Amino acid sequence: MSQSLRHFLLSGRLDRFAIALSGLCLAHCFVTAVVLGLLAMAGGIFESPIFHEAGLVLAILLGAIALGHGAMVHRFMMPAAIGSLGLGVMAGALTMDHGWQESVYTLIGVGILALGHDLNHRAGR
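RE: above sequence
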């Protein structure tokens, strides 16, 4: 056995290192269990139709305000027109049953709305 390894063993450094690793393992296991538990709980909340509907209504209201303000400021209607198409698709998704079709329509509407917001931003420069 080499002199440095012998010193490492006899000085107690190996024990301190092992204790530190055990502490890290304990922290990892605890944090993982807590985080997974919180994610499972949050998944139930985020999957709720009311959460999705409230988010869509808020996004539609904010989108309409931002697009309308931009159109009044820069007097260019194309961003508002494109964004309004996205808002309409999102509003249509609110009328659908909660499921994958509603999610697809929501994503399409959000994508079109994002394009409208981008054009609105560029027109305001």
